[in-house]
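Records of this kind hold a single protein each, on a pair of labelled lines. With that in mind, the following record should read easily:
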Amino acid sequence: MPLDCPVRQTASPTPTLTIEPPADRWAALLTHNTGPEATAFREQLGLPTDRPIVMSGHQAQIWHPGVLSKYLSAIAAGEALGAHPAWLVVDLDTGEPTRLRFAAQDDDGARRAGETDLAPTRAEAPGVPLGLRPPATISASVPAPLRPIADALRRHQGAPSLSAQIQNALEDLLESVATPIQSVSALAISRTDLFASIVDRMRTDPDTCAEAYNSAVSEHPDARVRPMRAGDVSKGVELPLWSIQGSERTPIYGAELRGAEITSLAPRGLLMTGLVRRAACDLFIHGTGGGVYDRITDLWFERWLGEAPHAPSAVVTATLRPGGEVDTTAVDEADRLTWLAQSARHNPGLLGDGKAEDQKRELVERIREAPADRAREMYRELHALLERVRSAHADRLTSLDAKALAARERAAPARVDAQIARDRTLPFPLYPPEDLLALRSLVQGAFGRAGG
């Protein structure tokens, strides 16, 4: 029988934790927003108004340890700073949160990685937010490592939605690590006065909203955020809102917004976090991706609404690997030789042919600057050059292929172990309790409290 959690050959490595800016600077960032807009918004979301709020959040899914570190940081910051910790459940997102990856060890000692759906009979609903989907009926038979998660989800099959089922199960699974904090549904934002006023502003001048959004997006291409699209004349410009008809979400355009009922609308990603930072909290904790998105939101709100959101943001992430100390030398070497064998066909310098490498780089630069017809001609020249290099160095390329193949064969038995050891995104309940407690101690230590 597989064991109930990933098995280690040695003791678990120490978790790594990143908090930016450092936790000792958070007090200087925290300024309680007591304005009437923030007071009304917090009351409508069921949040307290008598103290600052530190908030974080994530999609409704079984988190990996990096997300868990955000939750633990909200708790620790709340205790250290006299603030109220809260968690935003992003139930406007779609997905299949009962499909989970796992790692286990079989009777013969071999470790394996797998993936399964804990609710295999559930109908998929790719366009429906998790907050509008019914809870999942969990299978009676699941892989052993996932049984604690399955049991927690099964206890909450009577929840009002799939997202609520996931969040309730998470709070059960957190029992030995953290006291649950208040959770807030992203769908609830749609029922606030602030959301209604923002939508009215979009109705009045959708083009200005979209232009400011796209301008901010263009200044941060590294975030890979898609700009709002221009629709045809009858539709107008796309807006950062979801239209929810029945239960399926679709983007909405300016002309469609004019006749849309406010009850059929919901904020998309940047608008959702922008409104939360504008009025629901006084500091927001992101993971690595969200910190980049906030720079876009700040610019967009400044250019469209005249001011950036009130709450600053911090970034927290952690790495906790489930595989223990595994020697990945053979796998690393196989990967290196495979890359070399493939890349050498396109980079003459890797074959020691500096002259051909210079010719290649010159052609690439000329192609970038040439008009289309001439670029196509030079592209053919580039491929002809590379074919000549491959022919001249055929023996060397054959030797590289053989070395890479032999290295992959040597590494095959260790590859699954290495894959598990490198993985930082398995669900946190698969980790031994002592690893999760070590992560909690790191977080508490960063905020000036002893672990325990």
Summary: Confidence is low (pLDDT under 50) at residues 1-11. The two ends are 33 Å apart (CA to CA). The CA atoms of residues 42 and 104 lie 44 Å apart. The chain has 15 helices and eleven strands.
